[in-house]
Amino acid sequence: MITTLARTANRLVEGAAVLLLIAMLASVFLGVIFRFINQPLAWTDEMAQYLLVWTAFTGWIIAGNRGSHIRIVMFLDALKGRPRLAAEVVIQLLVAVLGMVLLTKSFGLIARNSDVEWVSLPLPVALVYLPIPIAGLAVVIRCGVEILAALRGQLHVAQQGPSL
């Protein structure tokens, strides 16, 4: 059940990334076309910038789930056994702390910007910050799963990704 739920969540995030990328490309394309005919649309640049932020956070979640973030493992590879396990757990705990900071602090950021509008559209600036708590929660959950996997002796997900 949990595996099915995780797979479904991953598919939803990947689908959202595709939709965000298409929307960003459409915004840029419209901006270029309308500039070409000397009728520029004021909102396309700002929309593309905000969609880029959303796409970046979505990509962060996807890369974390796939273990495709770059890790510098020169010192970790020198460790074996319990020291390696301890280092992996400490690293994941630190990343989880970052996720918790994002999760807890982002709501204040969203609230402070809920009454501020975009320059070119009557939308709240808070929209640009909405992916922050989602990404923070995803990071905390993923770190918890990776800590449990490490404690069970299973291969760390991020070890399968690129490393230096």
From TrEMBL:
Residues 24-152 form the Tripartite ATP-independent periplasmic transporters DctQ component domain. The chain crosses the membrane at residues 12-35, 47-64, 85-103, 123-145. One of its GO terms (biological process) is C4-dicarboxylate transport. One of its GO terms (molecular function) is transmembrane transporter activity. Keywords: Cell inner membrane, Cell membrane, Membrane, Transmembrane, Transmembrane helix, Transport. One of its GO terms (cellular component) is plasma membrane. It is found in: Cell inner membrane. It comes from the Bacteria. It is a multi-pass membrane protein. Belongs to the TRAP transporter small permease family. Part of the tripartite ATP-independent periplasmic (TRAP) transport system. The complex comprises the extracytoplasmic solute receptor protein and the two transmembrane proteins. This is TRAP transporter small permease protein.
